[in-house]
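At this stage, I wrote out one protein's amino acid sequence and its C-alpha cells, and that material follows here:
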Amino acid sequence: MDPGICNVSSMWELRAEYEMRFQEEDIWANQTDLLTSLLENCSMWFAIHHPNGGNLTNGIIYEDPAYFSYSYRIIGTFFQSIILLVGVLGNAMVVLVVAKTKSMRSPTNCYLVSLAIADCVALIASIPQEIVSYYLVGSQWIWGDVGCALLIFLQNLGINASSLSLTAFTIER
C-alpha cells in the first residue's frame, strides 16, 4: 500500500468523496466494505511504520504505551529495593537505639528520631510505587483516588517533616 494514501487527512477526504459519490447513486452500502478495508490497511501500515508502533483509529493516532525494557526494570527494581531496605532498616535502628538507651534521650536525638521517622515515611510512600510503575503499562495508576491522595500526602509529610527536623537540628545546635 502506498504510504501517501495513509495520510490521515487524505483518508477522510477519500471517505467524504466515497460517501458523496455513492450516496447519490444509492450504492454506498455496497462500498462500505471497501472503505473499511482501506482504513484497516492504513491502520496496519501506521502500526508498522510509526516510530512507537501507533494505532490509527477514526483518523486519530494512538501511540502504544511505553514499556520499560526488561534490563531497566531489573536494575531499577534491584537498586530501589536496596535503597528501601537500607533506608528503612537504618532509620528503624536509629529509633530503636534512641528508645532503648536511656543516655541517648536528649533533645538533639529527639530531632534525630523525628528525622528517621520522616525518612521512613517518605521512603515507604515513594519507592514501592516507583517499583510497581516499572511493571505497569505506561502511566497507569492502580491505587485509586484514595491511594493517590494518601501517597501524595505521605510523601509531602515525610519531606516537610525531614526539612523541619533538619532546621530544628540546626537551630538547636
